[in-house]
């Protein structure tokens, strides 16, 4: 019996190894002679315009509906849920009229967040936050999660002296590898 288990283990490992392919050589097709074929019916299944926003502010039983709602309708359908979840999560919004580092109340801030799109400035700096510009795009080097934590837990003084400093920084200040200066910009995996 012991030998049979050993043999079956070797067969299973061999089958898994042989079924793997070297997909480094994958070359995407460009469709027919006129380019890609986008005909057919497409359904949106997931959204993540701004990292962690969907994850944190959409209640579990509403995830599928949020992910399938077009952005222009998200604010009307989900802003109140975002606001309730923000106020329940962050003591920085415990009092009526409390604001974050951008001077936004919980209603104003969640009104901005509930439309989960990544806006991009076409005529100015592209950044998630650079000290002046906010949500005008996103650079790979932007510390997106820390910015979001500051806006959620930092209160009015979040940029200089967060109200809840232990909750206002993820303490991940750089990528594990330097970004490349040309496409694809991301460093190869280890």
Describe this structure in words.
Keywords: Signal. Residues 1-23 form the signal peptide. The chain is mainly alpha-helical and 190 residues long. It has a domain at 53-166. The chain is built from six helices and no strands. The protein is globular. It starts with a helix and ends in a 37-residue tail after the last helix. The model is unreliable at 1-20 (pLDDT under 50).
The count of β-strands is 0
- Report on the biggest sheet: none
Poorly predicted runs of 5 or more residues: 1-20
> What's the SSE pattern?
HHHHHH
Q: What is this entry, summarized?
A:
This is DUF4331 domain-containing protein. By secondary structure, this protein is mainly alpha-helical. It has 6 helices and no strands.
Name the features.
6 helices, DUF4331, mainly alpha, 190 residues, DUF4331 domain-containing protein, 0% strand, single chain
Topology of helices and strands:
Elements: H1 2-19, H2 53-57, H3 63-68, H4 71-89, H5 106-113, H6 144-153
Helix pairs in contact: 4-5
